[in-house]
């Protein structure tokens, strides 16, 4: 029996999965709420290196792990653009670099 990947049911499951991905934020670790308050980094904006680390060490258990694996496969397969609509709704890509220092104090008292 052949699987019809173009069926309405499969498209609906895909749409629901993308919707779930858009709502999940990293709940722990380097990209969690401690470092990126208040909710952590959206999982669709996690760097490929971080997702590759999970691929080596093992994804978390449960739905979070399943969604991280889907995001990982999409990004590593070159399909990162699939998340652009989510980024647009959220106001753009999450900035993962710390802001650079823009002002310096060259006060003589500190020397």
Strand share of the residues?
A: under 5%
In total, how many beta strands? 0
Major sheet, described briefly? none
**How would the global form be characterised?**
elongated
Rg to the nearest angstrom? 19 Å
Query: Tally the helices: what do you get?
Result: 4
| Sequence of secondary-structure elements | HHHH
Distance N to C terminus: 78 Å
Q: How would you state the average pLDDT, rounded? A: 89
Quickly give the structural class: mainly alpha
Low-pLDDT parts are none
Share of helical residues: 40-55%
Write up this protein:
43% of the residues lie in helices and 0% in strands. The protein has a domain at 18-90. The chain has helices at 8-23, 48-57, 62-76, 84-90. With 111 residues, it is mostly helical. α2 (48-57) packs across α3.
SSE topology:
Layout: H1 8-23, H2 48-57, H3 62-76, H4 84-90
Helix pairs in contact: 2-3
Describe the structure concisely:
Helix content is 43%, strand content 0%.
Descriptive terms for the model:
111 residues, mainly alpha, 4 helices, elongated
């Amino acid at each position: 029996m052949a699987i019809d990947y173009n069926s309405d049911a499969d498209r609906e499951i895909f749409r629901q999965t993308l919707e779930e991905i858009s709502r999940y934020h990293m709940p722990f670790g380097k990209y969690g709420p401690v470092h990126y308050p208040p909710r952590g980094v959206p999982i669709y904006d996690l760097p490929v290196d971080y997702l590759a680390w999970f691929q080596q060490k093992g994804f978390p258990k449960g739905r979070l792990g399943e969604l991280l694996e889907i995001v990982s496969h999409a990004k590593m397969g070159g399909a990162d653009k699939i998340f652009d609509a989510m980024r647009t709704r959220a106001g753009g890509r999450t900035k993962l670099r710390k802001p650079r220092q823009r002002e310096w104090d060259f006060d003589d008292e500190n020397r």
